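Please fill in the sequence for the structure shown.

STRUCTURE ENCODING:
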C-alpha cells in the first residue's frame, strides 16, 4: 500500500473512489484541466477490484468477441462521442449493420417483427401497426383511442405502466412498452418513473394531446433503420473506451485492488474540509484528500458516508438496485433454423419466459464471430425476475437454452458460452426519483469537498456516465482553483 501514500507535497489532493466509466472519466477530465492550467493538484483513483471499467468488459474467445456488459452507446447524447474524439478513438467507432434494421417481439411463442415506424410504445405509421399480429384488433382500437383522450396534469410523477395503460391501453403496455422500455432499465414498470426516464413522452402528450399524433408528426421523415443507426461501438469491443481512458492517465494515478472501507471528515483548524480515507480496512494505510469524489453505486456511497453524513447516506440508501445476467452463446449457423433477419428480440413478461431479451450480436455488429458462426447475447434477471440470479450457472444456462431452442429452433449445444452476473448494477429510477435527487443535491451542497457521480442520478447509459464524470471533474477543479486563489 505504500504507493497509495506516496503523494507529493502538492497543496491540493483529490481522491476518486470507483474505477468504472464514470470514475475514469472524472480522473481524465480533471487531469486535462490540471495540465492546461498548470496547477499543483494531485489525483488518485481507487478501484476495489483488480480491473477498472466496471460493467464495460470485452473478452475474445476462439474468434468470438464477447461483450459482458453494454455492447454500444447512443450517439444522440454527445458526451461519449466527444470523449472518443478527445481520446483519438473516433476512427475506431463502428455502426450497426443496417442490412436488416428491425427487431422482434415474442408473441405466443413466435418472433414477430416490430411494426415499421413503431417507437417504444406507439406507432408513427398506421398501416404497419394495423397489419401487425403483435396486437389484437381490440388492442389496436384501444391504442387508437389515444388520438381522442384528454391530457393529464404534467406535474404528477406517473409510472411507465400507468402512463401507457392510460394513453394506449393494457395490451400496448403488456405487449410492447413493458419489454422495450422496462427492459432498458431492468425495472418494474409499476414503479418506474416516466418523468425520470422517458420525459419526452410526457412532453409529447402536453404539446400534441396524443402520443400517436405526436409521433406521426415528429417521426414522419425518419425510417425505422435510422433508430438503429444512432448506436456506436468499437471494432474491438466496448472495452476500447476503458483502455483509451486508462492509457491517457499518468502512471500511478490508478490503484486497483484498493477498497475504500471508511471515510471520515477531519476536524481542527489545520484539517477543516479534509477527508481521511481508510484503505482495505487497514487503519495505518490511510489517504487524506482535500476533495473526494465517489463514483460508486448509491448504496456503496451510503455505506461510506453513514458516519459523517447520515442524512445524505439515508437518501442514497433509498436508491434501489437490481441484478441481471448477460449470457453469451455461440453456435454454428447450421444449428439455428430461424432466419435471424434483424438485431434481436425482446420478451414480454406475460410470455412467461426466463430470458427478457436476446441480441443477435454477430448480425448487429461486424467482427463478432467467425464466418459461418453466430454469436447471441441473452439477458436474464432485472426487477421482475431477481430470483433467477440465484440459480447455478448450469441451471441458468439450461433455462436460456430451452428458450432459445424453442424460439429460434436451435439444435445441439453451443460452441461456447459465457455467463456474467452483474449484482446490484442497475439503479432503479422509481417514482419520486427527481425529488429524491433534488434532496441529495441539497445535502451534498452543504458538505465541503464532496462530489458524487455515476448512473444513480441522471441517466444509466454510457454517455450519461461520461457527462456525470465531466461535471464532477469541473466542479472539483473549480472549487480547488477558487481555494488556491484565496490563499
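FILLED IN BY: designer on duty
SEQUENCE:
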Amino acid at each position: 500500500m505504500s504507493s497509495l501514500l506516496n503523494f507529493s507535497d502538492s497543496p491540493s489532493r483529490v481522491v476518486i473512489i470507483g474505477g468504472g466509466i464514470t470514475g475514469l472519466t472524472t480522473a481524465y477530465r480533471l487531469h486535462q484541466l490540471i495540465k492546461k492550467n498548470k496547477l499543483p493538484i494531485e489525483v488518485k483513483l481507487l478501484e476495489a477490484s483488480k480491473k477498472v471499467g466496471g460493467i464495460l468488459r470485452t473478452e475474445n474467445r476462439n474468434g468470438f468477441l464477447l461483450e459482458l456488459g453494454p455492447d454500444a452507446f447512443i450517439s444522440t447524447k454527445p458526451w461519449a462521442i466527444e470523449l472518443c474524439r478527445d481520446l483519438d478513438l473516433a476512427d475506431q467507432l463502428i455502426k450497426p449493420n443496417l442490412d436488416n434494421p428491425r427487431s422482434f417481439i415474442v408473441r405466443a411463442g413466435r418472433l414477430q417483427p416490430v411494426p415499421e415506424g413503431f417507437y417504444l410504445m406507439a406507432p408513427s405509421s398506421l398501416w404497419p401497426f394495423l397489419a401487425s399480429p403483435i396486437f389484437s384488433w381490440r388492442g389496436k382500437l384501444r391504442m387508437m383511442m389515444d388520438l381522442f383522450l384528454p391530457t393529464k396534469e404534467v406535474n404528477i410523477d406517473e409510472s411507465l405502466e400507468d402512463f401507457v395503460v392510460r394513453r394506449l391501453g393494457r395490451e400496448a403496455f403488456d405487449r410492447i412498452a413493458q419489454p422495450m422500455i422496462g427492459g432498458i432499465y431492468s425495472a418494474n414498470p409499476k414503479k418506474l418513473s416516466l418523468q425520470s426516464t422517458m420525459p419526452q413522452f410526457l412532453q409529447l402528450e402536453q404539446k400534441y394531446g396524443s402520443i400517436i399524433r405526436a409521433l406521426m408528426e415528429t417521426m414522419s421523415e425518419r425510417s425505422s433503420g435510422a433508430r438503429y443507426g444512432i448506436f456506436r461501438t468499437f471494432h474491438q469491443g466496448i472495452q476500447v473506451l476503458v483502455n483509451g481512458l486508462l492509457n491517457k492517465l499518468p502512471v500511478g494515478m490508478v490503484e486497483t485492488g484498493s477498497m475504500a472501507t471508511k471515510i471520515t471528515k477531519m476536524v481542527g483548524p489545520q484539517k477543516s474540509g479534509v477527508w481521511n480515507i481508510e484503505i482495505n480496512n487497514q487503519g495505518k494505510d490511510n489517504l487524506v484528500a482535500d476533495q473526494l469524489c465517489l463514483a460508486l453505486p448509491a448504496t456503496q456511497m451510503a455505506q461510506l458516508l453513514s458516519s459523517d453524513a447520515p442524512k445524505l447516506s439515508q437518501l442514497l440508501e433509498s436508491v434501489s438496485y437490481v441484478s441481471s445476467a448477460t449470457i453469451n452463446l455461440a453456435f454454428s449457423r447450421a444449428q439455428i433454423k430461424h432466419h435471424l433477419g434483424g438485431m434481436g428480440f425482446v420478451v414480454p413478461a406475460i410470455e412467461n419466459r426466463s430470458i427478457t431479451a436476446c441480441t443477435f450480436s454477430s448480425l448487429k455488429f461486424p467482427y463478432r464471430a467467425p464466418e459461418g458462426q453466430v454469436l447471441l447475447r441473452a439477458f436474464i434477471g432485472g426487477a421482475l425476475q431477481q430470483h433467477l440470479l440465484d440459480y447455478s450457472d448450469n441451471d441458468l444456462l439450461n433455462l436460456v437454452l430451452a428458450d432459445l431452442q424453442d424460439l429460434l429452433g436451435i439444435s445441439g449445444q453451443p460452441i461456447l458460452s459465457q455467463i456474467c452476473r452483474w449484482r446490484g448494477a442497475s439503479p432503479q429510477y422509481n417514482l419520486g426519483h427527481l425529488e429524491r435527487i433534488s434532496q441529495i443535491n441539497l445535502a451534498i451542497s452543504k458538505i465541503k469537498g464532496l462530489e458524487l457521480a455515476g448512473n444513480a442520478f441522471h441517466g444509466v447509459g454510457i454517455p450519461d456516465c461520461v457527462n456525470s464524470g465531466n461535471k464532477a471533474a469541473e466542479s472539483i477543479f473549480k472549487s480547488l482553483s477558487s481555494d488556491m486563489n484565496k490563499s
